[in-house]
Each structure stands twice: as C-alpha cells, then as structure tokens.
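Retro notes, item 3 of 5
We never archived the inputs for the D-mannonic acid complex last cycle. Fixing that now. Sequence and ligand:
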Amino acid sequence: MKNTLALNQKNLVEIEDRISVPTFDRSVLKAGIIHIGVGGFHRAHQAVYTHKLLEQSNSQKWGICGVGLREGDTKMAEVFKQQDNLYTLMVKHPNGKTASQIIGSIIDFKLGFNNPEAVIELMAHSDTKIVSLTITEGGYNFNPVTGNFDFENPDIQHELKFPDEPKTIYGFLTAALKKRRDAKLPPFTIMSCDNIEHNGDMARNMLLSFVKKQDAHLASWIESEVCFPNSMVDRITPVTTKAAITYLEKTHEIKDEWPVTCEPFMQWIVEDKFSNGRPEFEKVGVQFVSDVKPYEKMKLRLLNAGHSVLGILGAVQGFQTINECMEDDIFVTCLRRFMDKEATPILDEVKGIDLKSYKDSLEERFANPTIKDSLSRICSESAAKLPKFLIPTIHENLAIHGNIEFATLVIAAWCYYSDKGIDKNGQSIEIVDAMRSELHQAAKKTKTDPLAFIKQESLFGNLVKNERFTTLYTAMLRQIYEDQNIKKHMVNLL
Ligand code: CS2
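Structure as it came back at the time:
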C-alpha cells in the first residue's frame, strides 16, 4: 500500500510513479505571461497549452504568473502556495476514463487587492511580454446597450481618483503600462480569453476609454503600441467537485486541494498580432489567423448560446446537468432546431469549418456523461452572458424576418426562473447573478405588466418595441406561468 502524497514540487519525484508530471525544469522558467483570473478555465486551457509547449525539448521558457485581483481569489492563492503552483488536470472521456496529469506551467501567483504595488511591478517587469485575461463577460465594465465604458462603477471612480490604488483590471493595466512607457520598455500584449465577440477589441476600447480620462498621452501610446489580439477559446470545464478530489486520493493517492476537470476537446484560435513576442503556441495546436471574428461568432452563438438554451430550459424542467438535458430527446431536438434555424442563418462564412459537423460535435460534447456540467454554472451570470450569447441572435433574426421561437421561449423561461426561483416541481433554484435582485424585481412585475422583464434596456435593448417579438413572448410567458410545463411548450414548437 502506497502512502498519500500531497501535491508539491518536492513530492513530484514520487508522484511520477502514479501519474505524469512535468518533465521540464520549472526553476528556469520566467513569467513571460501574467494571467489575470486563474479559475478552472484558464487552468484547463491556456496553462495546458503552455505546459505542452514546455514539454517540447526545444521550447522557449515561457511560464505563467497567475494574478487574482479580488478577495475571492484568496483561496486559489493559498492552494497555489501550498502546492508550489502545481495542480492536477483531469480529462474526462465519454467512456468513463479519466486521464490525470500534473500541470507545471504556472510558476507563481499573486493577489492584487491587498498588494497592488507588487502586481503593477510584475506587469511592468521587462520579462513580462503578455498579460492575458479571463475576467468573465461581466469584468469588462461596459454598458451592454450603448457599448460604452461604465464610468458609474464606484471602483472605476476610485481608481481614476487614486491611480496608485487600482481595483479593476483597468487601473492595473494603466499603472503598469505607464511604468513601462516611462522606463522606455516595450508594452506587453493584452490578450483577452473571454467569451465575448471581438474580445480583444472590447478590451482595447474599454481600456482606452478609461486611460483617456486619466492621461491622454498614455492613451495615444497605448493606441499605437499595444496589440489586443481577438481570440476564440473553447474547452468545457465544469466546477471542480469534491468527488474529483476524492477520486485522485483514492485512485492515485494524491492529495490535491483544487484539481481541475474538463472534457478532452480543446480549441484556441488567436489573431497573430503581438506587441512583444509570443510563445510558439502553433506547435501545440493553437491556430493563428488574421481574423478570428467568424470563429468567435460561431462558437458564442452555437456552443455558448446552446449551453444557455439547455441551461435555462433545463433548470425550469428540474434538470441538474447539461448531460441530463441531452438524455432527453425533446431537449436534443430543440437544441438542434435552435442551432439550425435560428443561430446558423446569421453566422458568417467560417473558413475551413463544416457547420454541420461542428454542431454534431457540440451535441456529442454536451452529451458526455462524465462531465456533469452543472446547470447552476451554466445559468450563473446569465445577465452578463445572454446579451452576448443569445439576445443578439434574436435582434439579428428580427431584422431579416428569421426564426426566433426557441430563443424567445428561453427568454420567457428566464423571466419565470428569475421571478419564481423554482423549477416546475417547485424545487428552488439557486440563482447566481450580479443582477439577481434587478432581474427578480423586473420579473416579479410580470403579473401586472407582461413586458416588465424585457423592458430592462441594459439587457434587451429595444426588443420591447418589436411587436413580432412581444406578441410571441407574451403568449409563451402566459403558458409557462399557467402550467410551468416547459417541455410541453418546447414540444409545441417542433
Ligand atoms: C458556458 C461556457 O459559461 C457558460 O455559460 O457556456 O463556460 C462554456 O462551457 C465554455 O465557453 C466552453 O468553451
């Protein structure tokens, strides 16, 4: 009987007999990449590509230093400290097999909220070539209707007043870029890896709006010198469960406080524009293109929107996971109809991709029974996600007299879900959303004003003015409120 080994650098020599460990020398790596927002997704995606590249003997020595700007990142900092920034990647295959390995590309982790100076220094250091971001859709601080930077945010107001006390990504980037410019260092690239169409352009526009208020000269330097590649990122990464931690302990006798689980599929398409060099990621399967927009749109409007369609309808139906939805033929058919009839017609031509097989593969990935991606993860922050994933599809279809039935049913179900917070069996649904109370307040008015929910302009724009939409929406809403039988109303659309 072996003994359980805590995951850390010293124990790697023994862990090697159990699962694969980094074969490269971590001590010589430099933090060429500073990554803000180290959650499951980054650890299953960019950090894995970086690890794979480091595994190649002739590779450059790019390591990653993780940064958490919020107090909520403290736990990650503690775990990383205890484990010498190592963690286990557990890839879950549809046949039930789990392939586990230790990832070693992250070499340091810093918290920004309690020591902003250290993070600014790090970003301003000449070794830093790229600052990459997974700060979620909500992290970009834009007004979804106007698309403009939200100067009302108290954190933004604070950092504009006190540039030495940054709070959001914008304060940190500005302070660090200023230092680099003053030190005559080349800037770093800002690489957004969030699920937002034109994520690089978004990061650029928002940062420039912020900097212009503070320092017009710096803004023009950023405008001409800093690259913001757009990218499309993809790997389904459910929330880490206790079961994953126990599995590692039982099966491999490794104690990892926070492993990451994910599907086998991974994809990363990036525009090849970098201010200060980049790792040779093409050697490990990353695709570099000159324009990533059609790929981004395809992914967000099919995969992410597809997730939300299953997530919202599934939550009201009382399902818990995406694969549970995919075990129900009605859900599978509705998902496909939504993708074929509503999302596909508004996509641009996507070079080299056969949309039919892309959609087939999405169905397979969603159905993977080992992933157990929770609907609570999918539905969390819907107020930030749906205006990116689903609502634009309705607007674009209305403009071309296209189909809107399934997307509209999702919005009606979202209203019901935000109002009642229960599924059709009366079980409560935990709603995680920065706009939770606004959503609830608006949805609650539905009884007296059926259009109250979609009057939230910051989410829906002027959708409430479109009669074709409102007629369909109110009819669907009435039905859901009457009998809560979401599946019946899905069947009605087939
Ligand atoms: C999901 C995404 O958060 C969501 O709503 O759709 O996290 C999705 O799993 C990833 O983008 C897959 O690449």
